């Protein structure tokens, strides 16, 4: 049955709250993972990401709200046998079985015995390991086998917790390409968590940012990135003269220093996009030698940092005594 046949989102959480003794691990979380979307789930350690995934897969019962998979309660996820691929809590392979047998067992359990695993083994660099027992695999190799297993049956929904954390850069790129292809070519809905934000940004088209169990950001990633204040990076000589020119420019909001490859440059926040040419001209008129000047591309790492910074500031202000000046 196709994921779109029911008209329901493959994965949906509405008002989900889950409490532990120390307080809420999830606090009124809403999430929709539509068909063909790659939703990046991010947040600092302890934000509630793994708890959210376990609730989404019916492994934990929420204290409030509801979670559904293909329109049925997540607790009944077994009704959608083979339509959900997952990587949660590590590889969880059968240690006494070979790589090939682990994949065949997964296919048999879902009534799909004989599914050809060779293309995935090849893509993930596992062909020569097919006859090796899982107990003899390194951590990175085991994760690759678990990824092959998650993708093997061409699922309609993928739920992946830190899938590239133990992979070298080339294999991480391959894995991310496989996720993107599944979403684009088969309409697979994907929820993927990662602390490796630069890699996640390559494939995610939507974002959910959790902090202390609360949703700080949720929406289209490109639209969220567009909210970052425009900035330009400037390498110039003498640097202090460049700074003095830039801080006086009416288009400039702030000028800060950073080091890039051991060289000090200026990061210039501007009121609008497209200020690069005007700033370059102003520096030249002032007799500053500009080595390079270019717009700074908004990144998920920057969005993450700024959002958590604002949350920390708001939290500090909320607990500060009245009248405190800080």
Mean pLDDT: 93
Assign the CATH superfamily of the largest domain: P-loop containing nucleotide triphosphate hydrolases
CATH topology of the largest domain: Rossmann fold
Show unreliable segments: 1-6
| Architecture per CATH nomenclature, i.e. the level-2 architecture of the largest domain | 3-Layer(aba) Sandwich
Strand line-up of the largest beta sheet: 6-7-8-3-9-10
Number of domains: 2
Helix content: 25-40%
CA-atom Rg in angstroms: 24 Å
Number of separate helices: 10
Main sheet record: 6 strands, mixed
CA-based shape: globular
> What is the subunit organization of this protein?
single chain
Please trace the helix and strand order, writing H or E for each element.
EEEHEEEHHHEHEHEEHEHEEHEH
- Give the class-level CATH name of the largest domain: Alpha Beta
Measure the end-to-end span.
60 Å
Q: Approximately what portion of the residues adopt beta-strand conformation?
A: 25-35%
Given helix and strand content, the structural type is alpha/beta
């Amino acid at each position: 049955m196709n994921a779109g046949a029911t008209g329901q989102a493959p994965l949906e959480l509405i008002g989900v709250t889950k409490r532990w003794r120390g307080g809420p691990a999830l606090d009124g979380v809403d999430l929709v993972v539509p068909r063909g979307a790659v939703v990046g789930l991010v947040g600092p350690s302890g934000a509630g990401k793994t708890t959210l995934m376990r609730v989404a897969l019916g492994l934990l019962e929420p204290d409030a709200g509801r979670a559904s998979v293909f329109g049925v309660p997540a607790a009944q996820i077994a009704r959608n046998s083979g339509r959900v691929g997952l990587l949660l809590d590590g590889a969880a392979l059968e240690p006494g079985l070979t790589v090939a047998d682990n994949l065949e067992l997964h296919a048999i359990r879902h009534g799909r015995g004989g599914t050809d695993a060779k293309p995935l083994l090849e893509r993930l660099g596992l062909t020569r390991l097919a006859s090796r027992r899982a107990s003899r695999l390194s951590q990175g190799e085991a994760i690759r086998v678990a990824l092959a297993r998650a993708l093997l049956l061409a699922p309609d929904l993928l739920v992946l917790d830190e899938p590239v954390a133990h992979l070298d850069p080339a294999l991480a790129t391959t894995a991310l390409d496989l996720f993107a292809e599944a979403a684009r070519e088969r309409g697979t809905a994907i929820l993927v968590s990662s602390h490796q934000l630069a890699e996640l940004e390559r494939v995610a088209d939507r974002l959910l940012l959790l902090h202390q169990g609360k949703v700080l950001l949720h929406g289209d990633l490109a639209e969220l990135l567009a909210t970052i204040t425009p900035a330009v990076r400037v390498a110039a000589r003498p640097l202090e003269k460049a700074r003095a020119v830039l801080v006086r420019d009416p288009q400039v909001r702030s000028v800060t220093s950073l080091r890039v490859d051991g060289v000090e440059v200026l990061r210039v926040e501007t009121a609008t996009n497209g200020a690069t040419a005007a700033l370059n001209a102003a520096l030249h008129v002032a007799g500053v030698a500009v080595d390079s000047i270019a717009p700074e591309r908004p990144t998920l790492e920057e969005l993450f940092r700024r959002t958590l910074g604002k949350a920390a500031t708001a939290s500090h202000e909320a607990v500060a005594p009245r009248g405190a000046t800080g």
